[in-house]
């Protein structure tokens, strides 16, 4: 019996006691705005005496130390993750177990993902469309491995309009079945191929162990579905789309994923081959961040989706499907975040630059706010996403904390002395303290814009470099099962030659908790020997514990 | 017992026998590409003898007459509507009764609607976010009139992960209840207000009588939800958003909606006041195309959503909600379409200009295709949405029909003689035949771009003017119930002073089939007398039959 816990939020997102203990913290941090120092910028400033020492900035530093509210990442990674989600206002818990409300700031990251991928999908010849989310139960049963994979996770509608339905309806966990039902009606001849579509939609999987963004009962995603006349075309498409995801991960999200092929055991329910991008999180667990499946003719045979080829012969179509979901946001948080909170790559940051005007006396306020507003206009007209936080409610220090928590890549401070000198102070989110702070950047539009763009690029590269070196220093090349076990027990990823059986793969999982994340596309040259059996092996596999 | 009809598609979208009879037609027209003449442009052209008479264009005219496949609008409006949806490839029937697959061309219209509204919502201070679609059943029961309005239409999830749930889950029909549940956690003080959000989502209403786009079991929409500190602010917001919808209807969709307030009988379940935009379809039935609700404190009282005001007093928040759905696409089809198919206003057309290259001999092909491709580039770089149909599979005539069916505002034809003279032929979708066709428009980029932009503007205005004069010629001012009955029986809208009771309003509905669509914002001056009771009346009401 699944219990709906309403309105208590305890244990909504995790089964472990360690996490349950964290929930009072998470609940409290919902109100974190009230927990930070509530003195206004102006009144704090008025307390300061010396006009020489940039008093407000000093006060700001004090606030910061008092206001640390996120569990240190090193102390409890999962608690840190939940704290960041709450404090950066990314998401909240829905009333139904395992569901999530995506708050505006979290959703804006999703919109950035959508904006990029939508363009790439269209450039590669796909059209958006929309399929109904209710799928007749009988559809799910048509493809044998598909039903096996998904039936334990289904949410079923059994009542509609007050009456019990004759056939239960599945709330889509994925759309291959209904897509094939429609493709069968639309595809007649080779002239109708390739048929390449995508939909942005919500999907439902009745997961028992949930975690915001990473695994929720309902989530948002895009699912591409394509139909082709030949297996070669389908394979090319599946590879093309995993390449789109890989580029997105590296170039936009600054996540150095490892792209490769899933083992047979880990292949999608109904696919012939699954390609994946695997990302290393800050706790060194792997996150499967996107997949692309070559479905072969599995669904077309189950649904009778055929076309007449150029020789007049009836053939089953060859298909692919591929998806990226709101899980990716979890990947961004867990790749880049630190003890101060979220850290967003500039290319997907909803706000790239936050401007904090700082004033002491009432007669300084106008000048500072005017300068902030003119800097805002300058940056906006250069297509930089900028926000001014000019509220009277909070101290500059509170604001520094808050926008660091939200992961905004650059902060511009403008005080009375900056106004006099026609310059601003700029701080990098990714370089803490004095090292990341530069004084005296000219407000002159061309200089300022060039500087800001340059820094944003630098941060983007720097986040990728940092994540790449973290990843590489945590992957161990192994040549025996003992070495593999040692690496996994240290929390690292193990990479080694593998040609053993599915049973041996499952044994590794049972004994170490690690699974084959993928056979990476990038493979070392030369002869290899299976780490488990000593038999010749064609490829190295990557093993890791995963989300 | 609700019967799932699988995979038979008969009667999926309408209960009436007249429509059922139409379904073989609709089914057939799924394959309409195969029903049009299948001779290629080249081979048709080769059959022609005289090089002097623009032979392909003559052949094209012939094709057109043979290929009429849509039921004439005047003969059977509903059959025409379904034919257009099938032939213009806007939507198809899902496997579950009353569900709809939105095909790429239909979805592209939805994307145009989203693109415009999304900008306006953000400009007016709203953020996008996402709420879970599963709502505990108990939530729906909290607001008395809300449960009364929605409980007959609910789809309920009763099984999750193979187990029966303790509490049934409602698949959202609208989100006021879950929004209030979350607002209660987020809103504490007047500083948290206003809270203004929007979500793009799917919603489910178990409707018995369905019709593609107009009323489907599942549909796509946006739903805005806002919370305010005062009733005045909530009222202002509700009015602001109906104004956004009104402008969208007039300026983008070229639909001259009448904006006004709903009668008490027609107000949204749970609202204090509902504002609406009402559009007159080609059969003169009204379509409610968007609504904005002032919810007062109905939901905040039901859910205990309170804030502390500036004086430290606890108060319930004041709320609004507002929505536009994929129904609007039905409104566009039924406002502008004609016997040749869809007719799209340029501002929301996925393709504004289609280019048809026409060649006779193989040696002409290259020149014509090159010209088509250079014209395409010229228009694209001027941000005009353009498509070249250069397939060898179809005759120019077939293509003319096909793109007229799809409602593309402008067609550019380029033949060998056009290439020689450096000019093109341009035809307007909204002006049939020779009258809408202009020869010899120069290919010189600045001239061509200016001409095309000018014509697109002209078409945009012309569609609005035409719809406005159609609307105005079908609204009758009435001063007695007899006059009202007469107007309604002629299929027109009746406008007359009204201050009678809810019971009288329901009597009108029972006796004439018409309902009060709204009390229009635009009201005549002077003293008025209720058409039903003879009592003084403050306002005129608009009566019509509706979808």
UniProtKB/TrEMBL annotation, chains A, B:
Catalysis performed (reactions): tRNA(Pro) + L-proline + ATP = L-prolyl-tRNA(Pro) + AMP + diphosphate
Broad class of enzyme this protein falls into: ligase
Transmembrane regions listed in the UniProt entry: none
InterPro entries, A to Z: aa-tRNA-synt_IIb, aa-tRNA-synth_II, aa-tRNA-synth_II/BPL/LPL, Anticodon-bd, Anticodon-bd_dom_sf, Pro-tRNA-ligase_IIa, Pro-tRNA-ligase_IIa_arc-type, Pro-tRNA_ligase_II_C
EC number: 6.1.1.15
Domain Aminoacyl-transfer RNA synthetases class-II family profile residues, every copy: 97-345
Region (Disordered): 38-70
SMART domains with a match to the protein in the record: ProRS-C_1 (SM00946)
This protein's record includes keyword rRNA-binding: no
Keywords, in A-Z order: Aminoacyl-tRNA synthetase, ATP-binding, Ligase, Nucleotide-binding
HAMAP family for the chain: Pro_tRNA_synth_type3
Protein name: proline--tRNA ligase
């Amino acid at each position: 019996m699944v219990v709906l816990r309403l309105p208590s939020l305890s244990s909504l997102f995790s089964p472990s006691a360690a996490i349950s203990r964290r929930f009072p913290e998470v609940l409290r941090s919902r109100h974190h705005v009230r927990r930070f120092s509530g003195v206004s910028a102006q009144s704090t400033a008025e307390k300061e005496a010396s006009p020489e020492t940039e008093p407000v900035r000093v006060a700001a530093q004090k606030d910061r130390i008092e206001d640390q509210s996120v569990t240190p990442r090193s102390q409890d990674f999962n608690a840190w993750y939940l704290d960041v989600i709450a404090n950066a206002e990314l998401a909240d818990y829905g009333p139904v177990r395992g569901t999530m409300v995506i708050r505006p700031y979290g959703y804006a990251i999703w919109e950035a993902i959508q904006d990029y991928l939508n363009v790439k999908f269209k450039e590669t010849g796909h059209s958006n469309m929309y399929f109904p989310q209710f799928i007749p139960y009988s559809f799910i049963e048509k493809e044998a491995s598909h039903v096996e994979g998904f039936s334990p996770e289904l949410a079923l509608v059994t009542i509609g309009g007050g009456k019990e339905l004759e056939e239960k309806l599945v709330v889509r966990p994925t759309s291959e079945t209904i897509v094939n039902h429609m493709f069968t009606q639309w595809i007649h001849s080779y002239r109708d191929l390739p048929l390449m579509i995508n939909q942005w939609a919500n999907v439902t999987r009745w997961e028992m162990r949930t975690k915001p963004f990473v695994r929720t009962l309902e989530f948002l995603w895009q699912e591409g579905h394509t139909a082709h006349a030949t297996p070669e075309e389908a394979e090319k498409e599946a590879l093309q789309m995993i390449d789109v995801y890989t580029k997105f991960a590296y170039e936009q999200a600054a996540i150095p994923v490892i792209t490769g092929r899933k083992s047979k055991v880990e292949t999608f329910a109904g696919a012939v081959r699954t390609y994946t991008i695997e990302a290393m999180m800050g706790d060194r667990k792997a996150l499967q961040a996107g997949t692309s499946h070559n479905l072969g003719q599995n669904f077309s045979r189950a649904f009778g989706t055929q076309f007449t080829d150029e020789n007049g012969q009836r053939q089953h179509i060859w298909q692919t499907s591929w998806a990226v979901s709101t899980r990716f946001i979890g990947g961004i948080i867990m790749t880049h975040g630190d003890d101060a909170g979220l850290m967003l790559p500039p290319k997907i940051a909803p706000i790239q630059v936050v401007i904090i005007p700082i004033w002491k006396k009432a007669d300084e306020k106008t000048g500072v706010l005017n300068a902030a507003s003119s800097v805002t206009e300058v940056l906006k007209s250069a297509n930089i996403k900028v926000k001014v936080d000019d509220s009277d409610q909070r101290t500059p220090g509170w604001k520094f904390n808050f926008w660091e928590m939200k992961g905004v890549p650059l902060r511009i401070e403008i005080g009375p002395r900056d106004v006099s000198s026609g310059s601003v102070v700029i701080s990098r989110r990714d370089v803490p303290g004095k090292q990341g702070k530069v004084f005296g950047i000219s407000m002159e539009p061309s200089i300022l814009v060039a500087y800001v763009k340059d820094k944003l690029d630098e941060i983007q590269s720097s986040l990728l470099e940092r994540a790449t070196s973290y990843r590489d220093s945590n992957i161990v090349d192994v040549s025996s099962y003992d070495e593999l076990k040692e690496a996994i027990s240290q929390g690292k990823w193990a990479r080694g030659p593998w040609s053993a059986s599915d049973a041996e793969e499952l044994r590794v999982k049972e004994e170490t908790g690690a699974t084959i994340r993928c056979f990476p596309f990038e493979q070392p040259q030369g002869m290899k020997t299976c780490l488990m059996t000593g038999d010749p092996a064609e490829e190295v596999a990557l093993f890791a514990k995963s989300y």
